[in-house]
Design brief:
The complex is a heterodimer of chains A (180) and B (389). Chain A is an alpha+beta fold. Chain A has a domain of 119 residues: Alpha-Beta Plaits (2-Layer Sandwich), CATH 3.30.70. Chain A has six helices and five strands, in the order H-H-E-H-E-E-H-E-E-H-H. Chain B has a two-stranded antiparallel sheet with strand order 1-2. Classes of the chains: A alpha+beta (180), B mainly alpha (389).
Amino acid sequence: MAVIHVKRKPLTLAERTYLPQLFGGLMTTLRHLVRPAETMEYPEQRPSIPPGYRGVPTLVKDPHGREKCVSCQLCEFVCPPKAIRITPGSIAAGAGTENVEKAPQAFDIDMLRCIYCGLCEEVCPEEAIFLQNQYSMSGYSRAEMVTHKDRLYELGGTLPDKHFKWEVKKAAEEGAGGHP
Amino acid sequence: MADFFFGLPAFVQALAKGVAVILVVFPVAAACSMAERKVCAWIQGRPGPNRALPPMLAWIPGIGIPQRLGLFQLAADGAKFLFKEEPLPDHVNRLYYTLAPVVAMVPAFTTITVVPLGAYLSSGGGLIPLMLANVDVGILAVFAVASLGIYSLILAGWASNSKYPFLGGVRASAQLISYELSMTLSVLPVFLWVNEPGSAGTLSLVRVVEFQSGALRSGWGGAWFIITMPVSALIFAIALFAETNRQPFDMPESESDLVGGFHTEYGAFKWSLFFVAEYANMIVGSAVFALLFLGGWNLLPWVPLLSMLEWLHRVTGSALWLHPLVSGLVSIGILGGKILTMLFVFMWVRWTVPRFRYDQVMKLGWNKLLPLSIANLIAYTIGIYFLQG
């Protein structure tokens, strides 16, 4: 490696008076002074959330309004801080699909434990749980910070679905008589 | 109204004028603290305090403007300082600890008595300065009383009986001594020039402004001293920053190494008194700078107040401009504008330049500014000798 000798120049008289630098600095701060503020006035102005943001975990429904979660409990098992607690159950009687799948009877996520790692979303075979762009969680008690199933669906809403598992299953049953 | 006022005994008149001046200076000094926060915020790309608003005033249209400027925050802070608990630490010397903030206010409000705040056109056609005491000692009184302000810092630092305030007090006194000399020497050329041979000697600031009120053909007379004496103005400005303990010279406070310096042990209203005193000192300092170097109540160099008023009178055809009240208000407005600009520069510099190290402050004061001001004085003495014969 060649050593590059950098010549250290002595300060000029103007530099030693410190004044040109001072005025340069003043000009810089003046430019900042007249520039609009960089900050966002939070409750009124909200930041735009980029796609792929890992916010609060939520449960979603498919475009037909069906519950996607089948209470397989994979997310509960994978969750590193053990924030998810699922009580498996069946689809309510009379829905016509009771014999097809299961559904969670209760689905609680303790948001005081959740670390927003996204492993639940990663592991879900049904694409039923998503970390969406909700970033503000608050409550007055520990109990309030546990998000229950109805709240999870309320936060999650409906997401576009690529698979339509139920329709595919139904079509396969009617056509070839088996699962594809 | 005017007749009634002038019919009062002299001391009642003087008292009324004094109270009037304090009633203006105190709120302006307090408002400076909010201005400081807003300027700081804008320079740092933030909006600054803009939320506080009493709910019962929210219906007034346009109330958002003072709200955004933080005026209600200022009122809320002031009320908080009045009503919150006054902490009195156990280890302090109670008498001097309580005395220090009061002592801080005294020089701040005393110096303003000899500072002219404007001038009005009398019926005789001359400009009468608006000031509390038109005395010949002028600038000397300002310097003498202003340097007393340091006693409050030393008193606070010592009475707090705690190491950081003590160090702050020591630094304050060392800094004041270092910069007082350069400051005084820097204004001497101004008074050398003003006191022409044959004229009655005076140190009055009024005379300095009169000297700068020449019309265009009067040559040097109309030039402001910042044009003819830029080095003096620079030294004076730097020393002013040091004297008022403003960044980059706020050694007595220096939050990063001395917690809060001399006011570490203070809280509530006593603490706010220190700050009002600091800002009042800045106001007086800015006023003195504007009077000495920026032409006082003249709008532009070579455009004295009198010819400006006469020009306005000719153009608008209204004799109102020559009315004592209007001319007085105009002159106060011009000087006030200069003072506010100076105050802004104080804040602007504060949020631009980092604090000097203590040894740098001393070195700058003794090794650079003092020789420079002496050289400046000698150069101008010789120059003025040849100019005025």
